[in-house]
Amino acid sequence: MTETRQDQDRMSTLDSAAHIELTERYAAHNYHPLPVVLSHGEGAWVTDVEGRRYLDCLAGYSALNFGHGHPRLLARAHAQLDRLTLTSRAFFNDTLGPFAESLAQLTGKEVILPMNTGAEAVETALKVARKWGYRVKGVPEGEADIIVMEGNFHGRTTTIVSFSDDKVARDEYGPYTPGFGAVTYGDAESVRAAITDTTVAVLLEPIQGEGGVVIPPEGFLREVRAICDEAGILMIADEIQSGLARTGRTFACDHEDVVPDIYVMGKALGGGLYPVSAIAADHAVLDVVTPGSHGSTFGGNPLAAAIGHEVVTMLAEGEFQRRAADAGALLEAGLRPLVGNGLAAIRVRGLWAGLDIEPGGPSGRTMSERLMERGVLAKDTHGSTIRLAPPLVITEDEIRLLVDAVADSLH
Ligand SMILES: *Cc1c(COP(=O)(O)O)cnc(C)c1O
Fold it and tell me: Is residue 7 assigned to a domain?
């Protein structure tokens, strides 16, 4: 008891520099954070330990689509915390069924498989695709191939980094998992050319988020859909970052009216409160999974399911998709004049933007630091690109503040 009190006192008396020093000393250096130490969040805003406020334009890499501490999500989580948090899947619980039903309806799929992190959901999709290939398509066991995209980001497991072309993410983690081949993102012909008798699936991000908000040419997703249909293979859409209202539609695939065979979801599915991920597919695909052949201790636990259910209920109402579309249009209109005036290019879809800084301008890191000094938190991805993904609750005034901060930080 007294120790807890002392710990709390210590937490509240340490300043930013002391927290940074403590973290750097005792936590592994697998990130290079901006030098800001946050202690509170509400809506689109966060506050650091010295009381400075910042507009959060990273939003937990889109895990915080509904903002910090959304009252509906907090209320649902608090209620569930007091009632039941974990059963394991050895027993049924009274929140997973309703969550699964709602997510199946949102995706238009027959079944879902719940996991925790995004990488686990991607792994689940890959395992299901391989098993489907052997059981349904008749590929000889051990020979299934999956086509992936150059510039992909799907997470951090050994299998997933095996088919990454990001050297830093991949190097020195081998031996690598075989069975994956990369093709040019956005080029349907290269997808078609890569298909062989042992291909079972194509895995892609409908928009490459970590790649710098790379939007493929119009028609690419539709063509991949058609190619997968012709070849009798699965189209897997990793909507972990692009999905759940970020782009102004429920899924980024919706912009091309494309329905993949497997949706992969994470990040915002847990409302920024808790890790919740899932895949959704029809029985014809997901029934290849049988008791014992896949699982997770925490996957589908009552707390996760309650939060996920509230998230899905909020998405089903459509308000967040509209907000993303409207605020995104405002953001694009504000940023457009900066192209040729500090920015080399911008890519915007809904409330999601990739900003390429002109050669000779500040580095991505410097740009992030300048934005921070102006009260805006964002992060560079791949050197000279800044990704903006503010919570979808951001107001028009706050979008203007963001655009002004970007304009000021470029020079
Ligand atoms: C973040 C992300 C992942 C990995 O999710 P984690 O929860 O970090 O494991 C996978 N795919 C995409 C597209 C992502 O943005």
Answer: no
Question: Do 276 and 211 lie in a common domain?
Answer: yes
Its domain, for residue 397, covers: 16-70+319-409
Q: Coil, helix or strand for 46?
A: strand
Q: Which of 56, 238, 261, 356 is catalytic?
A: 238
Say if ligand 1 is within 6 A of residue 118 CB: yes
pLDDT tens digits along 24-49: 999 999 999 999 999 999 999 999 99
167 is an active site residue: no
CATH value at residue 82: 3.40.640.10
Helix (H) or strand (E) holding 234: strand 234-238
Mean pLDDT over the full length of the chain? 96
Cβ atoms of 21 and 15 closer than 8 Å: no
Active site residue 92: no
* Percentage helix, strand, coil for the chain under 3-state DSSP, each rounded to 5: 40, 20, 40
Q: 176 in ligand 1 pocket by Cβ < 6 Å? A: no
Residue 6 inside a domain? The answer is no
Buried b (16+ CB within 10 A) or exposed e, 87-119: eebeeebebbeebbebbbebbebebbbbbbbbb
161 exposure class (CB count in 10 Å sphere: 0-12, 13-18, 19+)? buried
Q: Which of 286, 316, 346 is the last residue of a domain?
A: 316
Residue located nearest, by CA, to atom 6 of ligand 1 = 118
- Are 105 and 130 contained in the same domain? yes
Same domain, 282 and 325: no
Ligand 1 pocket, 241 CB below 6 A?
yes
Q: What is the pLDDT along the chain (411 residues), one digit of tens a residue?
A: 445 555 655 566 899 999 999 999 999 999 999 999 999 999 999 999 999 999 999 999 999 999 999 999 999 999 999 999 999 999 999 999 999 999 999 999 999 999 999 999 999 999 999 999 999 999 999 999 999 999 999 999 999 999 999 999 999 999 999 999 999 999 999 999 999 999 999 999 999 999 999 999 999 999 999 999 999 999 999 999 999 999 999 999 999 999 999 999 999 999 999 999 999 999 999 999 999 999 999 999 999 999 999 999 999 999 999 999 999 999 999 999 999 999 999 999 999 999 999 999 999 999 999 999 999 999 999 889 999 999 999 999 999 999 999 999 999
Number of domains in the chain: 2
Evaluate whether residue 9 is within a structural domain: no
CA of 195 to the centre of ligand 1 (A): 26
C-beta 381 within 6 A of ligand 1:
no
Pairing of the two strands 45-48 and 38-42 = antiparallel
